[in-house]
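Reviewer 2 asked us to include a model.

Predict the structure of this chain.
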Amino acid sequence: MSAVNHRPDTPDTTVVKPPLKLLLAAPRGFCAGVDRAIEIVEQALAKFGAPVYVRHEIVHNRYVVESLKAKGAVFVKELDEIPETTQPVIFSAHGVAKSVPAVAQSRNLFVLDATCPLVSKVHMEAQRHFEQGRDIILVGHSGHPEVVGTIGQLPAGAISLVETAHEARHHVPRDTSRLAFITQTTLSLDDTAEIVQILKDRFPGIAGPVKEDICYATTNRQNAVKAIASKVEGLVVVGGPKSSNSLRLVEVGERFGCAISVLVERAADLPWAELSGLTSIGITAGASAPEIIVEEVVEAFRQRFDVTIEVVTTVEERVVFNVPRELRTRPSA
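Predicted model (structure tokens):
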């Protein structure tokens, strides 16, 4: 029998990856309002062909916007950038001031409104309070498209913006006996609860929404992060830097025990230096972030770690919103 030749000088090329446990928060990612907005653009392209014009980013996610551009969507900041056309013009999920559809009507533009129905609910509340003679406090973030659209539902000065607990403690309304509050739909649950409580303590007669304005998806995604934050050493939130609900998820992670909580748009943005040495990481996604990017992030971790995955589900979501009637009817032959 011939001897087997061993080569002790041959290097061991086996790479031992460090173990890493990933906890995937559920629910995460697209909400019903975002699903509806994207579907409106895609169905408009399918029914009417390109181009389809979209005022502002349909949702705050670069991947989604670039994907829709590739299919024929043209994104503009304002309506005056749109040429004379009979093609659809779509308003983003964040909602718009009343002046915007007025301009569109004056130009006879064919408008499809992708405003999230839960944002429209806040608009209707503002109108109702205004008609009842109340001064209105809007709890929200200055400059956010949703806030701009909500303030723009009423005449200038009808809505006062309050962003912080400090501002809530010092806000001086014109008439404390006729006062109401509404909120942006994508705020921090805890911060907003504190601000609302301050307003209620200062103004016991203040009117509020029958059902809170912070949307179900924002609530559910923040609660899902709370459920995993104490079980992991770090948190990765997939979302855009302009996405309010995504930024709030980072804050929730930090507040509930994840000192290392980071926001990434794509896997290429993962800060490996910050994440090195961790043995457990939570992953979630803002309401405008597609699941394909979550999968991309998980695969990036697989390349560097021996990954095990656990999905932590706090609630099942079954909310669906219909697209506008114009997209549900068949074109005439």
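The chain has a mean pLDDT of 94. The chain has three domains: 19-30+216-313, 32-116, 119-202. We have added this to the supplementary material.
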